[in-house]
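Suppose a colleague, Dr. K., hands you the sequence of a protein chain of 281 amino acids and asks what its three-dimensional shape might be. Before reaching for any lab equipment, you can write down a predicted structure in token form. Begin with the sequence itself:
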Amino acid sequence: MVGSGTHRAALTKAITYTALAAVAAILLLPLLWMLSASLKGNEEIFSIPPTWVPKDFHWGNYSQVFDRMPFLAYLRNTTFITIMTIVGTVFSSSLVAYAFACLRWPGRDKVFILVIATMMLPLHVTMIPLFVIFKELHWLNTYKPLIVPAFLGGGAFNIFLLRQFFLSIPRELFDAARIDGFSEWRIYWSIAMPLARPALITVAILTLMFTWNDFLGPLIYLYDQTKNTLALGLAHFVGQYQTEWGILMAASLLMMIPIIAIFFFFQRYFVRGFTLTGMKA
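The predicted structure, expressed as tokens, is then:
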């Protein structure tokens, strides 16, 4: 019986790993095709039947990326916007989440429900009012519309995620700190923030992926080409009558490398941030 149970467990594990490997392979297919296409000419990319290994490697596609657009300047702009947005989102969303989770004040739960309800508003509903506000503030063609909102709450989803994590921290820890004379600010900064590191890193990674790949925001608010981001820079390779697909795939792959590297480096914190987030009401 013991041997039968061991074999059954091993078979179940083998089937599970095989299924996961198959799903992972399917999910990796677009990335592998992008890598393959970045080393091909336009003719070979659309050849029938398709080929995974290029017959003639076009290594020049990668050098063309730097010749066709100021890639390093766009990388610098994107990095600046992303870093500032991450700082603002992590700080402001954690501050708001701490107020919802650890402080008692009239109407707290009702206000929290109102904040969560804003997640149901599509981006396109607020696009025009935001544009008018930023126009009246004379912020158009600057990075302020892309950065400043991150310091004003950090987004309903991030507030919800951090609030749930703060709720999972024992209340006795905060009460003991208050008895010792800690201010709420010191409790937030010295106790809550270090304990919420996995959740904070999760918020930072999600913000990084959204901001790094954001196309609509820079397209709406930035007019000067020298201030463009990488997402806007990719549009240089999409023509009205012809698109340089090989160069476009090479530029897209170069744009993805920092995101992939950062995700794999912080992967364990990212997973832990979701698994340890409590679901207390």
